[in-house]
Amino acid sequence: MGFVYSQLVVQLPYPTGSYAGKTVVVTGSNTGLGKEAARHYARLGASRLILAVRSIDKGNAAKADIESTTSCGKNVIEVWQPDLGSYASVKDFAANISSDLERVDIFNANAGLARKKYHTAEDNEETITVNVVSTFLLAALVLPKLKETMKRFNVRPTLAITSSGGHTFAKFPQKDAPEGQIFSTINDPNASSKVFAEQYPLSKMLEIFAVRSVGENDPGVTVNCIDPGFCESELARDQDGIFFPLMKFFLARTTEKGSRTLIHAGSRGSQTHGKYLSNCKIAEPSDIVTGPEGKKLQERLWIELTQKLENIQPGVTANFRA
Ligand SMILES: NC(=O)c1ccc[n+]([C@@H]2O[C@H](COP(=O)([O-])OP(=O)(O)OC[C@H]3O[C@@H](n4cnc5c(N)ncnc54)[C@H](OP(=O)(O)O)[C@@H]3O)[C@@H](O)[C@H]2O)c1
């Protein structure tokens, strides 16, 4: 009932205020929640808005659409190309952020996917690479620019990761793997095929665990994560059957309404650092995260994730600290 109430009754605040002077980056912004969030930032006067997308053509189409429906003008939106399925692409994109942007006030790490079948990207199953490893690699690589922005402009930038209330569907049997082997068990095609329907919710739970770990330090910028609710978008493009279309028909928020949660989280301060936000409020994630074994599990996951990030880019995880 909580889910139905949240979907059909709860009203999310319509984004207001001015984003003049701010530079905003939104990943996965050619469609879905990211595109509608970008439209809000453009409408509210962001000075520089980076659509971070894996297809330049789709990004240019989104840019033209946003420009034609807001009065942001032609010089605000830029289309940049990270592919989160490739660590090299993530590194190149982050290097461009570092060299070409004077400031980053809001970074919505929103790109994500929900695969129906097992695919590999880099050293993981693709959902895990895109939603978790590349998302936190990107976070670690752009945090220095957000910290620089904090010092130069005396503001507190925010990096908001789009997680999901759907994380509650993950039972996470791989958590019982031997020490140091949780990610390898999640990535094991044989082990994961038995619970592959949980791979996407699990990836979203891993994001929440990691944000809580980042939240234990205060790097001077806010890092939080979001449950946008169940929303219309292209996320279920890989799924077949009648379940998702039916759910969407009866329960989904419009993409625009869901996108309000991205602006809300991107505009929050230190009180949301390390937190999970649902319905535009600080909320508690599932029992697996908050229960008696959650803290130990969080520590194990953080050791494994940061080791992965260090293998990709030595030294990068120091950026999560102050
Ligand atoms: N819709 C919901 O009900 C819901 C609920 C909870 C959480 N979320 C989360 O919200 C976020 C946005 O999803 P959405 O619902 O808006 O779905 P969407 O319409 O499918 O948008 C996903 C975006 O992520 C991009 N993306 C996927 N793989 C990528 C990669 N390898 N590199 C770079 N970009 C990539 C997509 O680009 P392409 O178009 O090029 O593939 C697209 O721009 C996701 O993190 C999702 O998990 C959604």
From TrEMBL:
This is Uncharacterized protein. The lineage of its organism: Eukaryota, Fungi, Dikarya, Ascomycota, Pezizomycotina. It comes from the Eukaryota. Pfam families: adh_short (PF00106). InterPro entries: NAD(P)-bd_dom_sf, SDR_fam. Keywords: Oxidoreductase. PANTHER family: PHOSPHATIDYLINOSITOL-GLYCAN BIOSYNTHESIS CLASS F PROTEIN, PHOSPHATIDYLINOSITOL-GLYCAN BIOSYNTHESIS CLASS F PROTEIN-RELATED. It comes from Zasmidium cellare ATCC 36951. One of its GO terms (molecular function) is oxidoreductase activity.
